[in-house]
Amino acid sequence: MLGVQEDSPLNPSHPNPSLTQRQPRPLREFADGARDTFPMMVGAAPFGVIFGTLVTAGPLAWWHGELMSLIVFAGSAQFIAIGLLAGGAGALVVIATTLIVNLRHLLYSATLAPYVAHLPLRWRATLGALMTDEVFAVAYARYRHTRPGEMGPHYFLGSGVAMYVNWQIWTVVGLLFGAAFPGLQALGLDFATAATFIAIVVPQLAAFRYLAAAATAGVIAQLCHALPYKLNLLAAVVAGVTVGVALSLRDHVRARRCSEAAS
Amino acid sequence: MSYVLILLGMAAVTYAIRTTLFLFGERLVFPPLVRTALGFVPVTVLTAIIVPMTVAPHGGGVEFGLRNPQLVGGLAAVIVSAATRRPLLTIAVGLAVFFVWQGVVMPRWLPA
């Protein structure tokens, strides 16, 4: 029914996919990446349509909307920009807001950087352009079971291209027929994205320090939900990571004391 | 200013944020503390996205209760994932519970 198969690399019961993949199979990995992204393509579809519809209702020409999806490819930032432009905001405000809304992607690239560092520049330049919340979640869920440099770029690329093409299609649908789909958001299709994120996150919470970090982030994200420009996400990450690092340092100190006492 | 120039500015800023660290390649080496911190980024940012989506699906305050299908479906997904660690099963059960709750259970048994 859904894109992720039980032998999927998202499945932590296969902790080391490299053992079963001695020969890299680019096409297969590309397809796996696209397949594992499928539920989130469903989740993003209504937002693409709603974005297209908003463009036709605002001051931009339809092709401005499609151009934005093609060259910016960042859902939240695109929605906020449309709102700002409709309100007559200036270029600097729109671009600075885009920077703030997308700042979390800097953390994504820092997290994934070790896994792509060995690739040629053209690969790194391409993969970075395709990185959204969803692509990051899927790519990291796969990479975290491998050592840096062990895995090729095709899985990441498959996820990114799938998400990119999906976003373009639904933007066009919204631009052309958006008015024909009222109440699209009420269907709750974006729950597919939440369910996939849950399937990715929960298996990573086995150790207490990860559980504590995630719980902190969840609480802070909700408490700060009124902050503009998705700043609640950044606040949540800062708080959660701080808790996680503090617990890691405590564990580290304890382990050292134990080994000193033993020797 | 032309809309096209604004769009190009948005694209440049977004691309720079996403790619700059990738462009350093193997010259980029994080100190151990930063590596430890980055290890917590995936679970924290994804949880920070999940919680408001499920606990407050209409963007406002929290909606604890049985009339929130996102919350019911999300809890079902968490339980299945914790028990089985199987992604497909987690997503399938989460979506099934969500849609059945929203489409059948709430209209029939949980009138507003």
Quickly describe the structure.
The complex is a heterodimer of chains A (263) and B (112). Helix content of chain A is 70%, strand content 0%.
Can you walk through the features of this model?
With 263 residues, chain A is mainly α. Chain A has two domains: 23-205, no CATH class; 206-263. Chain A contains twelve helices and no strands. Chain A has helices at residues 17-20, 26-57, 62-71, 75-86, 91-101, 104-116, 121-129, 133-143, 154-177, 191-201, 208-223, 231-262. The radius of gyration of chain A is 20 Å and the shape is globular. Chain B is mainly α and 112 residues long. Helices cover 73% and strands 0% of the residues of chain B. Chain B has helices spanning 3-23, 32-38, 41-55, 69-84, 87-109. The model of chain B has no long low-confidence stretch (mean pLDDT 94). The interface between A and B is large, with 97 and 72 residues.
Distance between the termini of chain A: 56 Å
Poorly predicted parts of chain A: 1-9, 11-21
Q: Mean pLDDT across all residues of chain B, rounded?
A: 94
Distance between the termini of chain B: 49 Å
Radius of gyration based on Cα positions of chain A: 20 Å
Please give the oligomerization state of what you see. Answer: heterodimer
Structure summary, number of beta strands of chain A: 0
Low-confidence stretches of chain B are none
Our count of domains of chain B comes out at: 1
Number of strands of chain B: 0
Strand content of chain B: under 5%
Supply the number of structural domains of chain A: 2
Q: What structural class should be given to the helix and strand makeup of chain B? A: mainly alpha
Keyword list:
A: mainly alpha; 0% strand; B: 112 residues; mainly alpha; 5 helices; extended
Protein topology:
The complex is a heterodimer of chains A (263) and B (112).
Chain A: H1 17-20, H2 26-57, H3 62-71, H4 75-86, H5 91-101, H6 104-116, H7 121-129, H8 133-143, H9 154-177, H10 191-201, H11 208-223, H12 231-262
Chain B: H1 3-23, H2 32-38, H3 41-55, H4 69-84, H5 87-109
Helix pairs in contact in B: 4-5
